[in-house]
Amino acid sequence: MVLLPRLTAFAEAYPEIILDVVTVTGPVDLVAGEFDAGIQLGEYIQKDMIAVPVTRELRLAAVGSPRYFASRRLPQKPRDLHDHRCITLRLPGGPYRWEFEKGRKSVTINVNGPLIIDDTHLVIEAALAGAGIGLAYEEQVAEYIVKRRLIRVLEDWTPPIPGFFMYYPSRQHQPAALSALVNALRLS
Fold first, then answer.
1. Most buried of the four, 122, 158, 161, 183, by CB within 10 Å?
2. pTM
């Protein structure tokens, strides 16, 4: 969602820079891992890092296939998910607890289902295949919703959240390649 759409333009503008990309779900200690920078949701970034927004606010979308919902009622409130098969995303601390909010009400649900997966793209594929309800970023599933391959539920319970940020340690002498990447990814 962040890097790939801008990668071609960056590679053309800076052909001498080689990006070594590592994908990890969850928080990463850049210094301990000897990384120059990371891209993460704002809430996971350590306070002593410089953070540059690289996406607008995001929204989560709970989705299931028409086949899955053919014999099931659509959930009207988060607690209805207890009656459904949900596809859970595994984060480093364990399965993600689904968080919902509507007005002043906040609800966190430990969902149950047939799959716990550590990759959001696989969560989407499983939802498309009819395995259950999955949770993904709205942007990732928008096309499937428009084409009616996925049905969105609980939309009024998913407010915007801060988006992704590129983050890196404060350095007096920032490498030129990192500066170029920050400028290329910075939300304009």
1. 158
2. 0.81
